[in-house]
Amino acid sequence: MIALAATIFRFLLRHLVAFVLICAVLLFGKWAWAEWQAHQSSQAELAQLTAANDRIARDLNTLTTASQGRMATLASASLDTLTARIDTVDQETRRKQLERQKASAIGPVLKGQPIVAHQWDGMRLDAEIYLLNAERRHLQELRLRLQATQSAQARRAELERLRLVHQGLYTQWQAAQREREALEQSHPVACRLGIGGIGSTEYRQCEQLRAMQAQLLAENQRAAEDYQRQHALAQAIQPLPPLEAFAPRQSDIDALLGPLRERQTALQNLRAGNWFVRLSQPLRDIFPAALLILLGVIFTPLALKALFYFVLAPLAARRPPVRLLPDSLGELALESHLSAVSREVTVDPTHELLLHPDFLQSASIAGHTDTCWLLNRRFPLTSLASGMVALTRIRTTAPATYVVSATQDAHSEIGVLVLPAGAALVMQPHNLVGVLQQRGVPVRITSHWRLGSLHAWLTLQLRYLAFHGPAQLIVQGCRGVRVEPAHTGRSVSQAATIAFNANLGYSTRRCETFIAYVRGKQALLNDSFQGDKGFYVYEEMPHSSQHDGGPARWFQGLADSVLKVFGI
Questions:
Q1: Which in 9, 471, 479, 509 has the greatest CB count within 10 A?
Q2: To 5 degrees, how large is the angle CA 14–CA 17–CA 21?
Q3: Under 8 Å between Cβ of 136 and 93
Q4: Residue 385, class by beta-carbon neighbours within 10 Å (0-12 exposed, 13-18 middle, 19+ buried)?
């Protein structure tokens, strides 16, 4: 009963959790869809607003240029022409205002709503009305200035007229004065004393001249007073400041485009608070650089592989092969002609066995065992890097058999290479498991650098190590070890090569197909061996550790490349 209840409870709990997750996913999807739609709507409306702003700015610039052209033409117009233009502007303003009222009646005023075509037309009409009003104000200023200029000219003309009147009266008074003085000089008695009768002709002429002078003097004084008053009026006229060029004020433009820019600001704030924009904006900023990096990651290795496959590898194949010791014997034999999971090695009193401890499966208790710290004291770093350190050294007083096996690797097999005296074998020590050599006479190892060989640079193996016989070299190989004669030429995968006779010509050959090389199915270069007499050694397949994934493979590949440079 309890088990049934527990089963039912788990069933209900599992489906309840599934139901809650489904609801959460649907709610999140609905919310994300609404956010995305809001983002798209605001983006489209913001694009319309930007287009409207640009369009209105262009139209306003065009209308302003036309108004400025008309103002430049009317700058020297007459008073009647200015008055006629003001009347025309008033008529156009009234007509535009009627059109604006009709445009406003079509739809709601722009306040938080999308911009439509009739609203654009309404804002254009607002701009035209604003420019007409500005043009009217400028025309009125021109007319006022023209009227002021004409009034000032009239005052100056009246002042000049009064000056001429004053001057004429003074000239007449001077003429009457000269005439009276001449008459008094010719008839002094008659003119001054009236001798000969008060009614004499000379006396009456003098009196008339005196009366004329008094009248002219009085008129001259009145003309001088009139002149002074008119001169004071002329001096009271203040010069007008220079008229500013016709141009719309920025504050008026801001007020005209205020609703549009307020809506733009509101949309920008809305977009700034949208999570979709906050997430997509950084992605858009880094997208070009990320795309270039991705393309570089994809195509740079392909370009390098194409360069190596189609240029460098064929060039290396045409270079002469490397022959390290052409005068050495090309002799080598695989004991029992085959490798096995375990091999028996017989040690007699004249020989000693140096063996890696991990490969000693069983040993005779009759032998003497101690530690040999280095494979060869002349190459301490090579021995350390290849793992041939702290070796088990076995010496016997009578022939004894020892079993060598790869106890740590189920896929490795052991092969014993018999190297006679006078023969030399080029190999990398990392495949070496042990050495059966004469007691007290370590196997001789020589180092050979080939810095001028293109084969060496392409394979990144600049140094080669040659093991000289007589000796028996115990090697391991995945799935087995094979020894084959080179004859007129043989090629083998470079990853599988273990060793070859030093008298053979060693070179590299390009793999057969480019696609297999690009896909990583084959290495770029295969080892090629040439020679009438000589052998090469290889394992049946590269070790499985070379195909491991992850960072370990990268670090192992880097370490192997560094060690391969030194032939290890």
A1: 471
A2: 140
A3: yes
A4: middle
Query: Are 464 and 451 in contact, with CB atoms under 8 Å apart?
Result: no
B/e letters for 158-189, b = 16+ CB within 10 Å, e = fewer, are: ebeebbebbeebbebbeebbebbeebbeebee
- Which letter does DSSP use for residue 81 in this model? H
Phi/psi of residue 490, nearest 5 degrees? -135, 155
Each residue of 269-297: pLDDT tens digit? 666 666 666 666 677 778 788 888 888 88
Q: How confident is the model at residue 424 (pLDDT cuts 50, 70, 90)?
A: very high
Would you give the DSSP letter of residue 193?
Answer: T
pTM over 0.85: no
Secondary element (H or E) of residue 536: strand 535-539
**96-124 core/surface letters (b: 16 or more CB in 10 A; e: else):** beebbeebeeeeeebeeeebeeebbebbb
Of 45-59, 201-215, 296-310, 467-481, where does mean pLDDT reach its minimum? 45-59
SS3 state of residue 144: helix
Contact at 8 Å (CB) between 551 and 511? no
Nearest partner of 207 among 226, 225, 187, 227, judged by Cα: 187
